[in-house]
Amino acid sequence: MLHRIGVLLSGRGSNFEALADSIAAGRIPGAEIALVIGNREGAPGLARAAARGIAAKAIPSKGLAREEYDRVVVDELRKAGVELVCLAGFMRLLSPYFVAAYPQRILNVHPSLLPSFPGLEAQRQALEYGVKFSGCTVHLVDENLDAGPILAQAIVPVRDGDTDETLSARILVEEHRIYTEAVRLILSGEYRIEGRRVIATGKTS
Prior knowledge:
This protein has 205 residues and is of the alpha/beta class. The protein folds into two domains: 103 residues, Rossmann fold; 98 residues, 3-Layer(aba) Sandwich (Rossmann fold), CATH 3.40.50.170. Helix content is 35%, strand content 25%. The protein has six helices and nine strands; from the N terminus they run βαβαβαβαβαββαββ. The strands form two sheets. Strands 3-2-1-4-5-6-7 form a seven-stranded mixed β-sheet. The protein has a two-stranded antiparallel sheet with strand order 8-9. Helix 2 links the parallel strand 2 and strand 3. The longest helix is centred in the last third of the chain and has 25 residues. The mean pLDDT is 96.
């Protein structure tokens, strides 16, 4: 039986497409994307999902309180039999209700080496701070912003001539790679969590 993944997005959905490509190529064995939900009408990622024959649904969040919206989304995910939720550029903080509905089964990818530069415009934050290395992080999601236990990270050197766009582009390549690794680890079940540490215990380590 295939593991059913739900993807939430707000925009273009490049990390969704990377996950879909990895599933199609067998890099995430025994998985399928069962549903893609966008909180913005016309989000390009929804059209890209539909073009792949994946169920895609717009559930606009504008005007709804956070938990009110999350209850609608969780209901749709449950109807689709989703067991793992992947955030792919989903520009909303999840409510405690959502986190409790999928405990340690929600993943997010963030374009910095957390805990450095959480929140919006992480690449700009890194450049303004003058760091020599940035990168990306896949983590489990809790009720706090970009704060759950870390599953995978990748380092990206910052070049002297970098702009937000050039640094973001190089980080995005690594996001696509480590998101696949993190999803594969979670679905394998071959890990344990000790405090904030996620420790691989099987052949995926």
